[in-house]
Amino acid sequence: MSPPSARDLADVLPGADLVHAPAVLEAAITHMAAAIDTALGARPALFLTVMQGALPFAGQLATRIRTPLRFDYVHATRYRGATSGGELHWIKRPSLDLAGATVLLVDDILDEGHTLKAIRDACLEEGAARVLVAVLCDKRHARRTPGIAADFIGVEVPDRYVFGYGMDYYEQGRNLPAIYAVDG
After folding, report:
1. Which residues contact 173 (CB under 8 A, 6 or more apart)?
2. Is 90 contained in some domain?
3. Is residue 136 part of a domain?
């Protein structure tokens, strides 16, 4: 969803709708961690954070998971500071060996899924035995890329331009403790 023409968060935030308050997000993350522990069955996993948006969520999720984890990150984008996606651009691929690993791929939002699917597929091509996808937000709509779904979902968000808790509005607002939707 395209945001309005204003590019300053201070102009947009006062009119934005609160979608999920901090307490809702905290409870969702705790619930996700328990579900992930159950799915992993105490078998170690590689916790792979998708930069930059997943960073706030990943930090909170990781501290609640009791299963042994190794950590790495990837950075791939289709947005490059814009609000609509283009061709996938890899900034950093995983550093750790994925061969035979169970990978927990952690991202802020599953929207259309192009980027997340490409990253998941790259992990499998690198030899990961299994890739589980955990997203804080799932945006429900009919534009989803075939072949991608999240195994663990924190909250659903409306089919609107959302920001906060890792998701940005023109590279602003990632540090907001709640999720908002742009008015209109």
Report:
1. 9, 13, 163, 164, 167, 180
2. yes
3. yes
CATH of the domain at 98: 3.40.50.2020
Nearest of 155, 116, 118, 147 to residue 133 by alpha carbon: 116
Distance CA 180, CA 184 (A): 12
**Plot region of 38 (φ>0 → left; ψ -120 to 50 → alpha; else → beta):** alpha
Residue 1 located in a structural domain: no
Q: Name the nearest CA neighbour of 154 among 72, 16, 52, 33.
A: 33
State the Cα–Cα distance between residues 177 and 184, nearest whole angstrom.
Answer: 22
Residues belonging to the active site: 111
Average model confidence (pLDDT) across the chain? 92
Domain with 116, as residue range(s), is: 9-181
Tens digits of residue pLDDT in 71-126: 999 998 766 555 555 677 889 999 999 999 999 999 999 999 998 999 999 999 99
Distance, in Å, from the CA atom of 179 to the CA atom of 173, rounded to the nearest integer, reads: 10
Integer Cα distance of 104 and 69 in angstroms = 9
Report if residue 17 sits inside a domain.
yes
Provide the number of structural domains found in the chain: 1
Query: pTM of whole model > 0.85?
Result: yes
